[in-house]
């Protein structure tokens, strides 16, 4: 599944109806990762593996839970993850080769 982050870098993934066959292994902290897919900024669109942004960053519990009479929202975090501009990538490659 792919979810779009908002302007504050949050995304909402509704896990309503999620069936856990194993309470630990199927838990979102074990079963879910966050990956960079695409950047909203055309000039800064090269994915990096900072904090496993390409390989898949594991989620961490932020001890934030929002409760109401009808629902419960658990907040998880990953990252920070980052994109790089192609210019910065070229300069970094140049430094690596000639540094």
Describe the structure.
The chain is an alpha+beta fold and 99 residues long. The chain has one domain. The protein has 2 helices and 6 strands; from the N terminus they run αββββββα. The longest helix is centred in the last third of the chain and has 13 residues, at 86-98. It starts with 27 loop residues before the first helix and ends with a helix. 4% of the residues are buried. The mean pLDDT is 81.
Which structural class matches the secondary elements? alpha+beta
Which value, in Å, is the CA radius of gyration? 17 Å
Name the beta content range. Answer: 15-25%
Low-confidence stretches: none
Largest sheet: 2 strands, antiparallel
Q: Element order, helices and strands?
A: HEEEEEEH
Please tell me what the overall shape is.
elongated
Count of discrete structural domains: 1
| Mean pLDDT metric | 81
Rounded to the nearest angstrom, the distance between the terminal CA atoms is 40 Å
